[in-house]
């Protein structure tokens, strides 16, 4: 096989994620909110292990102030679009704020909706040991659950903003205790968001499930980034420390739209021959003959 031919890839499974963890192969996760994005993450030239329909959808794609106002119906609408474009990546969806805390029954009903209506592989739930019974319930009915500890954006008000978590002994102990309880409840993997590097390293070394970090340093089993952050799609004055800009898609888009606008205004677009359609001269003449006949009959009325 030539170096230019991408390796054929199979659908990511929980078993293959565990195998990546065991072999020390970093796991790649990117968020997606629509069909074209899902196609890119499934492409054989840039294959990603896991696609996450994150509730960051609220801010990145819908212009909402935070994730807490995103509804389950809105999430399902986007998850369906992402599922249509997803082939090999494992497809995980964030359960929105309020869609799983009320009771185990509510969580099970809504997770089943995501599986049946959107066709996703697993759900992700933000929270600590207090949601362990819900994780256990979903796992027991065959819905894989990804845990999410550390910074919990759905609780940004209670946490007084988006702040690094687990920086002191008490905070680190709480997060480690949460992680153990969630693993024990059956979570197949865990996102660790915005915690100091040594804590995420300790968690990765002492848990049995793959850890996926965001703002958790280089020692987790995998990394996740938000599509819009890594591509720079939107104007933003604030860049969290953990974001690396791998491209500047925003300026590329703006250049293209400016060029289009200029071309329309100076009439260089569309080109009369290359970008427009022809009509046979005889057909055109017959059409004009009929129009003239119609016009003279209107005048003589
Ligand atoms: N575009 C986007 N990227 C994300 O990573 C993301 C979202 N949206 N929306 C939902 C949550 C919100 N997240 C955030 C938002 C802000 C910070 C932030 O400003 N962090 C500070 C930490 C300050 C401190 O405590 O020292 C930073 O400067 O890194 C972190 C995570 C992560 N998620
Ligand atoms: C940042 C990731 C982990 C997430 O939860 C989201 O995009 O909503
Ligand atoms: Mg999220």
From TrEMBL:
Function: Catalyzes the reversible reaction in which hydroxymethyl group from 5,10-methylenetetrahydrofolate is transferred onto alpha-ketoisovalerate to form ketopantoate.
Keyword Methyltransferase carried by entry: yes
SUPFAM superfamilies cross-referenced by the UniProt entry: Phosphoenolpyruvate/pyruvate domain
Catalytic activity: (6R)-5,10-methylene-5,6,7,8-tetrahydrofolate + 3-methyl-2-oxobutanoate + H2O = 2-dehydropantoate + (6S)-5,6,7,8-tetrahydrofolate
Source taxon at top rank: Eukaryota
Annotated pathway: Cofactor biosynthesis; (R)-pantothenate biosynthesis; (R)-pantoate from 3-methyl-2-oxobutanoate: step 1/2
Name of this chain's protein: 3-methyl-2-oxobutanoate hydroxymethyltransferase
GO biological process: methylation; pantothenate biosynthetic process
Annotated InterPro entries: Pantoate_hydroxy_MeTrfase (IPR003700), Pyrv/PenolPyrv_kinase-like_dom (IPR015813), Pyrv_kinase-like_dom_sf (IPR040442)
